[in-house]
Here is the input.
Amino acid sequence: MQIANFNKIKPKQLIVFDMDGTLTPTKAPMDREMTALMAKLLLVKKVAVIGGGKYQLFKQQLLQPLKVKKELFKNLFLFPTTSTAFYKYNGGWKNVYLLQLSQQERQKIKATFQRVFDEIGYRQPEKIYGKVIEDRGTQVTFSALGQEVVAMLGRVKGVALKEQWKEHNTPVKLKIAGLMQKYLPELEVRAAGHTSVDVTKKGIDKAYGLRQIEKHLKVKIKDMLFVGDAIFPGGNDYAVTKTPVDYIAVAGPEQTKDIIRKILG
Ligand SMILES: [Mg+2]
Here is the structure.
């Protein structure tokens, strides 16, 4: 349920954040202010982060900026690639589970992307940055401008380019996602983030993520707060509304900071 009453937030045991657009601009690291707030939050709450990005990206966006005492990492739980993987800290970051796609499934996904591009006459942007189709093992992801656009162009230019693409091409992206799901009914297809389409095993979404958090961390979903920027029909956080979780929709990291300040205050 959407909540606005901050008295209901304080007692929550665990705060679950989406990554891109919620803690950070898309694919970029947390800024200094967010990092400082997160360090304080970890002193008083358990924190889980679910995002579409791979584990390597979680390290760059979340762990590298966060200079906290190692024991605080015990309160931080990472669910990259839409919770198809789970990492927790125990004298180092350890993988708890990994829902790998088979070699055959991954080949089929890549071939189907090509089929869909041909079918709708999709043309790639003239300039792309890194892989457009990336095999993340647990997830195959289409990124219209390439995986490395923010890494290669820098945060300001890279994020601006992605936002520009999103503004003009979201209908095309949704069309690609729709056809992918039609041709791959045995798998889960999501139009995610700004420029991406993710394919994973069936039944993987952020509701699945919350259930995994409940199971592995022994915290009931109703005792969690979820914060995300895409809690609307078609958004990649929308699935959480199917669960008993209390949630707050944010427009971006600045609003997320306000929520963390209220939890701390
Ligand atoms: Mg997001």
The pocket of magnesium ion is lined by residues 18, 20-22, 228-230 (CB under 6 Å). Helices lie at 32-44, 55-63, 80-83, 103-120, 149-153, 155-183, 206-217, 253-264. The chain has two domains: 6-99+204-264, 103-201. The longest helix spans residues 155-183.
